[in-house]
Amino acid sequence: MHKALIPLAAAVALLGAGQALQGQGKDHVAYPQGYRSWYHVKTMVLQPGHPLYDSFGGIHHVYANEKARKGLQTGTFDKGAVFVFDLLEAQSEENALTEGARKVLAVMERDDKRFAATGGWGFEAFAQGDPTRRVVTNAKEQCFSCHESQVQTGFVFSRWRP
Ligand code: HEC
Fold first, then answer.
1. Cβ(88)–Cβ(102) below 8 Å
2. Coil, strand, or helix at residue 143?
3. Are 22 and 52 in contact (CB under 8 A)?
4. Given pLDDT bands bounded at 50, 70 and 90, which one contains residue 162?
C-alpha cells in the first residue's frame, strides 16, 4: 500500500515543481489559475475596421484578482495584483454576437521589483489560453509601449465601474 503511493507522491511533487518553475523565473508571469472566477471588470468587442482588429479583434473580457480589483478603486496596485484579458473569436449569426474559440489570454502581473523596466507590470500572453504557449518575447515593445500611455492610472486601461 505505502509502496504504491510513493510513485504517485513523487509525480505530484514533480508536477508541483514544474508549475512553480514556470511561474517564478525572473521575468516570468504565472499562468492565471482560476481567473474565470475572479472579478469581471468589463467586456468589449473589436469589430473589423477597428485599428487594433488584427491583433485584438473579437470579444474580450477583462478579469481582476482581488488585489487588482482594489487597485482599480484606489489607484494603487499592490504586488500580486493580476489582470487577465481573455480574447475569444466573435461569431456573428442571426444578428447576435457569440463567443467562439479562445484566441489569446493576455496577463499583467504586478511586481515593482521584478518588472521595474515595464512600469511594475509583467506582461505575458498565452496562445489560445494554453499555459505552455507563451508568446511575449519583448514585453517593452509588444505590450508596454502601448500601456505606457495610461501612466495616470498605473498603466491600466480599464476603469472602475461599480
Ligand atoms: C496597441 C495598444 C495595446 C497593446 C500593444 C497591448 N495592449 Fe493590453 N490593452 C490595450 C487596451 C486599449 C486595453 C483596454 C481594453 C478594454 O478597455 O476593454 C488593454 C487591456 C489589457 C489588459 C487588462 C488590464 C487593462 O489595462 O485594462 C491586459 C491584462 C492587457 N491589456 C495585457 C496586454 C499584454 C500582455 C500585451 C502584450 C502582449 C498587451 N496588453 C498589449 C491596449 C494594448
1. yes
2. helix
3. no
4. confident
Query: Does any ligand 1 atom lie closer than 6 A to the CB of residue 90?
Result: no
Residue nearest to atom 2 of ligand 1 (CA): 146
Distance 65 CA to ligand 1 centre (A): 16
- Cβ of 146 closer than 6 Å to ligand 1, yes or no, is yes
Beta carbon of 106 within 6 Å of any ligand 1 atom:
yes
Residue 77, domain member (yes or no): yes
- Report residue 25's pLDDT band, with 50, 70 and 90 as the boundaries: low
Q: Is 4 part of any domain?
A: no
Domain range for 73: 28-153
Q: Supply the CATH number for residue 48's domain.
A: 3.50.70.20
Rounded Cα gap, residues 73 and 92, in angstroms:
34
Tell me, yes or no, whether 22 lies in a domain: no
Question: Is the shortest distance between the CB of 29 and ligand 1 below 6 Å?
Answer: no
Our count of domains for the chain comes to 1
What's the pLDDT tens digit per position in 91-111?
999 999 999 999 999 999 999
